[in-house]
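Quick start: read one record
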Amino acid sequence: MRAFTVSDLNSALRAHLEDEGLFFDIWLLAEVVEFRRYPSGHCYFTLKDEHASIRAVLWRSKAEQIVALPANGEAVLAHGRIGFYEARGELQFVVDQIVPAGVGLINAQLEHLRARLEAEGLFDERRKRPLPVLPRRIGIVTSLQAAALQDMLTILRRRYPLAEVILSPCLVQGELAPASIVAALRRAYAEPLDVIILARGGGASDDLSAFNDEQVVRTVAASPVPIITGVGHETDTTLVDAVADVRAPTPSAAAELVAPPLADLRQRITELRERAEVALLTGIDAQRSEVARQRLLLQRHHPRRRLDAARQTIDDLMLRLDRAFSRWLQLERTRLHGLHSRLNTLSPQATLARGYAIAQRTDGRVITDSSQVQTGERIALTLRAGIVHATVESTNE
């Protein structure tokens, strides 16, 4: 025989109760006693009826989501699962939703589902899509026997006959309605639609239960195109309304939102045409300005203009060169004239013109000293004009 330790036994019990998920979705109708909320935010209390009781815990994360916490002695509907506190070997009911018993089980279950879906973000406004402005193919998911269907078809034909309407019929009430709606939606998703109307019409709130079904809500959330709901009358709101892209108060209102009237379309076309004309004229003016600017730039940088500028530069340089050469030539002429004057002044001819003569021996050597000649020697005297031959009679030093 095997002997268990207390820890082994409690661990096995916890695994059996919690890990296998045997008691994970339970609603309890009970009275609250010994309710206490601790500074940590966790709530501990007991749920009891006439014959039994069980300890319960509401963790802070869940308690913060509950609008009004229960009071001692209050009858409630509590949703949660069985937990096992291994350290003390105690069973406890782990609560995640609690409402007054007067709300009723169906409403309590609905609010619990609403809170869970909202926590997943299915109702987030950021995931909502706008309806198409000019839908070409409109899908309608509703009952073929619903009076609302004929109302919607009449509105669509009157306001927007350009669109093609595709029907995907389904049941809208009864036990088979949720599965029928899901199947109809999936058939519609297989069509190339621009928008889908999910409609039912009025009726008691009990008749709208199919539109609060979790599978229906998730199927609507998965729609590839915008969905607009017209499920009930103006006072009826379902989970499908919360998850849809647009909620209309009635099926007729949904059809009106989907189908813009022809007058509005004509007005919009006129506005678009006017905007297009303004944009076109503005674009043409801008292009003309750009062409003019480019033409001016082309003229400024055209090769002929650059060639003309180069020619003008060459002409200016040639003129400057001519002027510089003329000035240089004049200066050289003046300098040459001065040199010529000095040369004339210093030339032998100028000296001879003043009465001097050049004495030369018969061998042509110039006589510069009287000692270079002898008495009786013949010499030649070169004058300014002509040569005189003479004989030396005497010399003086």
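The chain has eleven helices and 13 strands.
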